[in-house]
Design brief:
Layout: H1 3-17, H2 20-24, E1 29-32, H3 34-42, E2 49-52, H4 76-80, E3 86-90, H5 96-104, E4 109-112, H6 118-132, H7 135-157, E5 166-174, E6 177-181, H8 186-193, E7 197-198, E8 206-209, H9 211-217, E9 221-225, H10 235-239, H11 242-245, H12 248-252, E10 255-258, H13 260-264, H14 270-282
Parallel strand pairs: 1-2, 1-3, 3-4, 5-7, 5-9, 9-10
Antiparallel strand pairs: 5-6, 6-8
């Protein structure tokens, strides 16, 4: 059974564990996933939140909540210490051992489908709304976001094929070795939504890339998460790496940095993030 269908099946089972009164009441909620937390705030249900994970950095007031760790490295003790009545987590939350222990503790756990597409965002919003018992506001939010994503898609469609920039997403630099995004990644999806081309479409996921492969990919622009202040090299240092210096991006000093959750979260702000990325790549619409 495909992972998406399995996730939806488990979500349905978990939701059946949450009674209608429990959904309506203000049960304590732990959110594991930045986009889920954003959706909860967008739906006005933030008063139910008692804890969040490290990726839940927006809105800023969410950062005042207790932190239960990284979404893929959750501690069952840390989560259960919050005495949640409901745990909402992105479908790649983990590790599996933690999820199993949380289920054994008989706390309703709902894994929210997380597909990095326009349709996937709407599905995610509705799934969160279903878990919270606020279907109508969730449907309205999903419609608004879908309309915004339609504007984004229309703009991308106007970029001629021969004018589409080749964008390389660099996830990290380790000892000068570049970990880049291939297809089937959030980064690749957001690049394509902005009307550009992922320069590393020859492989799936995030993988180290050799200097030869980097030069052959010939990216026009380098895209990175903004991690200034956390030991990340500055723009000049990044673009002076031999693997990048010989590319069009290196020669033109073309590097874009954006907040990682904002850029890759695929939540209510994604249309805004894609528009900002497109503005960086091609200039503001209509200019």
């Amino acid at each position: 059974m495909p992972r998406f269908k399995m996730t939806c099946l488990w979500a349905a089972v978990a939701l059946s564990m949450v009674s209608g009164s429990a959904q309506a009441d203000h049960v304590n909620i732990v959110s594991a996933g930045g986009s889920i937390t954003e959706i909860i705030y967008a739906l006005g249900a933030q008063d139910r939140l008692v804890a969040r994970d490290t990726t839940s950095t927006f809105p800023q007031e969410a950062q005042a909540l207790p932190n239960v760790g990284y979404v893929r490295a959750l501690s069952p003790e840390g989560v259960l210490a919050m005495k949640p009545g409901l745990i909402l987590a992105e479908e790649d939350a983990g590790p599996p051992e933690t999820l199993e222990l949380l289920r054994e503790a008989n706390v309703p756990l709902v894994l929210i489908p997380d597909v990095p597409t326009s349709e996937g965002i709407a599905t995610k919003i509705r799934a969160v709304g279903d878990a919270l018992g606020v279907d109508e506001p969730a449907n309205e939010l999903a419609k608004q976001v879908s309309a915004q994503m339609k504007v984004v898609a229309d703009r991308a469609a106007e970029v001629p094929e021969h004018s589409r920039k080749r964008v390389l997403f660099v996830l990290s630099l380790q000892g000068g070795r570049i970990l880049a995004a291939g297809h089937d990644t959030e980064a690749s999806s957001v690049i394509e939504l902005a009307g550009a081309v992922n320069a590393m479409n020859g492989f799936s996921g995030y993988k180290p890339v050799s200097e030869e492969a980097m030069i052959a990919a010939a990216p026009d622009i380098i895209l990175m998460m903004d991690r200034r202040g956390s030991g990340m090299a500055d723009d000049a240092a990044v673009l002076s790496l031999p693997a990048l210096a010989a590319t069009p991006a290196g020669q033109e000093m073309a590097l874009i940095r954006m907040d990682g959750q904002y850029l890759l979260g695929f939540g209510p702000r994604t249309a805004q993030a894609v528009t900002e990325l497109a503005d960086h790549i091609y200039g503001p619409a209509g200019s």
